[in-house]
Design a protein that fits this description.
single chain, 260 residues, alpha/beta
């Protein structure tokens, strides 16, 4: 019942997809600072390797660059991970893509790319890594899969990111579906739905002072999310404190989802 034991994640092995920047980088750093070994992946080789080098100042971090939406590249990633590890305590499916275009001009490619990266890749990677997740799982300490959804999959966004909102709503449902079937393997699957955080995906809004002020004004708690906000939720779900949860989506959004 001690806090230090309830929220302890030390010694766990984790994968964070999209870990070279934004929310993924925040999550990877938070896990490393709390004693996890972390593998990060992202599509751009140099960015992934540079991020792993920076993150290694906080703990054991390794980069395996890959495009997880590409079947052969994803298989290579899994094989390379297996060369080093036989079990996986935590998989954070964070890598994502977005596309915005007005209705009437939204291209088919804008749906294909976003759904491949945001929905298909997390499902396929989770499926590929089931042997390692099962190897880490016990009744008292299940292996964990954490999907990163979005508040835009809960409420109707203001923008024209149709494929993005659809993909994140899909991730929220996929979380429940996987949780239902994997619970028998002692693998829990939960989801975090972030609001606005500092990231490349949000830079078009947050880098402009006027737009940033608008985002802050529309957030009930009156600020942008911090690394502590996302890492706190991750550690809760990954630790003993969250061991009896599966199939849930937690909005980490400063209250935006309460707007309906």
């Amino acid at each position: 019942m001690r806090i230090s034991e309830l929220f302890d994640v030390s010694g766990k092995t984790a994968i964070v997809t999209g870990g070279s920047r934004g929310i993924g980088y925040m999550i990877a750093e938070g896990l490393l600072r709390n004693g996890c070994s972390v593998y990060i992946t992202s599509r751009k080789v140099e960015d992934c390797q540079q991020a792993a080098e920076e993150l290694s100042t906080h703990g054991n971090c390794k980069a395996i660059p890959s495009d997880l939406s590409n079947d052969s590249d994803r298989v290579r990633f899994v094989e390379e991970f297996r060369e080093s590890e036989g079990k996986l305590d935590l998989l954070v499916n964070n890598a994502g893509a977005a596309w915005g275009s007005p209705i009437g001009a939204f291209p088919s490619s804008g749906f294909d790319k976003v759904l491949n990266v945001n929905v298909k890749a997390p499902f396929m990677l989770t499926q590929d890594l089931l042997p390692e997740l099962r190897n880490a799982a016990t009744r008292e300490d299940p292996a964990r899969v954490i999907m990163i959804g979005s508040v835009d999959g809960i409420r109707v966004p203001f923008g024209d990111n149709y494929s993005y909102s659809a993909s994140k709503a899909g991730i929220h449902m996929l979380t429940r579906h996987l949780a239902h079937h994997l619970v028998r393997d002692q693998v829990s699957v939960n989801c975090i739905a972030p609001g606005p955080f500092e990231s490349k995906m949000m830079s078009y809004m947050l880098d402009d002072p006027d737009r940033r002020a608008g985002v802050v004004a529309s957030t009930p708690l009156g600020r942008i999310g911090s690394p502590e906000d996302i890492v706190g939720a991750i550690i809760f779900l990954a630790s003993r404190a969250g061991a009896w949860l599966t199939g849930v989506t937690i909005p980490v959004d400063g209250g935006i989802s309460t707007h309906g």
